[in-house]
Design a protein that fits this description.
It contains 19 helices and no strands. With 434 residues, the chain is mostly helical. It has a single domain, classed as Growth Hormone, Chain: A. It is globular.
Length: 434
Amino acid sequence: MSVASLRRAARESVSGLPREFWWLWTSTLINRLGAFVATFMALYLTLDRGYSASYAGLVASLHGLGGVISSIGAGVLTDRLGRRPTMMIAQMSTAFSVALLGFMTDPVAIAGVAFLVGMASNASRPAVQAMMADIVKPEDRMRAFSLNYWAINLGFAFSSAGAGLVAEYSYRAGFLVEATMTLVCAVLVFLKLPESRPERTEKEKAAEPEVSLGTVFRDGRYMGVVGLSFLISLIFQQGYVGLPVAMGTDGFSSSDFGMAIAVNGVMIVVLQIPVTRYIEHRDARRLLIVSSLLAGYGFGLTAFAGSVAVYALTICVWTLAEIVNSPTQTGLVVRLSPVHGRGRYQGVYTMSWSVAALIAPLMSGFVIDQYGAAWLWAACAVLGTVASLGYWLLMRGLPEEAAVSHEAGVEAGVEARVEAGVQERADSPAPATA
């Protein structure tokens, strides 16, 4: 492919998206540039503090438990209070709790504050996803979700490599840098992003029942997607809880892990946009089946790794699964979510990842301590196979553009509200409060 073709592809990939999306994208990028703690928590507890892999798994699971609890509440707040205030509350709480965690020395205190960090850091996800669905047209959403995931990994590519160097100097510095960057995100949301929550008209209220959490849990196909999301995230979580512990057990340093896992971020930065252009209009069922198999067997190959280079090679395999799975699955979730219940639906979807974050560390710590890492990687291969079969069964008969017609009358109103919010900020001498 020529340079001119690459430039044209890049322009087409980023064109046509609203300004508010790019501010949201920038906030995501800043947040991930400072994401040190989650990446190196396991190494911090095992190598720096001298705790066992089981204790490190317990702390990470408490972090995940906090996310499970907050995801549902944050989804409700996103629908009731709004996207913007929910994000600001979550980000400011995250900044405070992450900074506090860096000064904890008692094992009980570390576990307790890690739980608070999990609650705060996970609370912004339903709001971010709901706002993105609000402000981006249905036909552009897969591209928007892909670009947002690209921003996550662009930041991760730099933060993971930088965090390895920071960890060699001071883990506490990593906690403080992440807290500062998260606070910057809250300021950016306050200054640049208007509220995007669609308001229901009286006619819509009379025609459609109010979306509750019970509505979400009774939606059989959607809950099937949530369950499969849990299996996939349980696999991917091992890259950040099982893999660093396994590499540490094999005698590799935090810098070695940083170099290996940075391949994940770099590969997504390089391939996310061209791969998304290739898969954008292809069969979602096939994409989800193939990505599930790549994820499971990519981690399964880790059982044969004995050097940083081989670890990096296995990371390449399951990273390709991430590149395909993330925008495809997120787009499916939005398609199955009613417009006026996006916060709750996104909250339940986020919960699947939070439950996986709760279980994965316990799973990896127990299996590695009792049986060895090879059994953990074999379990990942089995989970990937089960997930691929589940997608094959679940996606049969799903309309290609489900729920798009239902949204058509709402999108114009949302865009008008966003534009009005931007104009109000331009005319106002000071930013409006949340």
